[in-house]
Amino acid sequence: MLSKMRRVQTGWRIEELQLVAQEHGVAWRRPGRGGSHVIFSAAGVREIVSVPAKRPIKPVYVKHFVALIDASNEVKQREK
């Protein structure tokens, strides 16, 4: 799914981003009081990505999300 996100950055749902995040060890949470965004973060990565949970998710958010996954994977590789 991640490789498809790299090629096609439109048409994704928040549940799909959450699934990819789980597969790559990236944490996600919804802010308190039922916020409309999902926050993605990874250990060792300074940036966080806040994605509006409404559909459709804009391509810019998918691009930032993929960059976060890549940064997380790089941190894990350096730790080995």
Q: Keyphrases for this structure?
A:
single chain; 80 residues; alpha+beta; 3-stranded antiparallel β-sheet; globular
Protein topology:
Blueprint: H1 2-7, H2 14-23, E1 27-29, E2 37-41, E3 49-52, H3 59-79
Antiparallel strand pairs: 1-2, 2-3
Q: How far is the first residue's CA from the last residue's CA?
A: 25 Å
Show unreliable segments: none
Helix-strand category: alpha+beta
- If helices are DSSP runs of H or I spanning 4 or more residues, what is the number of helices? 3
Strand content: 15-25%
* Biggest β-sheet description: 3 strands, antiparallel
Shape: globular
| Total strand segments | 3
Mean pLDDT, to the nearest integer, reads 92
Q: Please state how the strands of the largest beta sheet are arranged side by side.
A: 1-2-3
Order of helices and strands: HHEEEH
Number of domains: 1
Helix content: 40-55%
Rg, Cα atoms, Å:
12 Å
Would you write up a description of this structure?
The chain is of the alpha+beta class. The protein has one domain. About 45% of the residues lie in helices and about 15% in strands. The protein has helices spanning about 1-5, 15-25, 60-80, and strands at about 25-30, 35-40, 50. It has a three-stranded antiparallel beta sheet, with helices on one face. Strand 1 (about 25-30) and strand 2 (about 35-40) form a beta hairpin. The model has no long low-confidence stretch (mean pLDDT about 90).
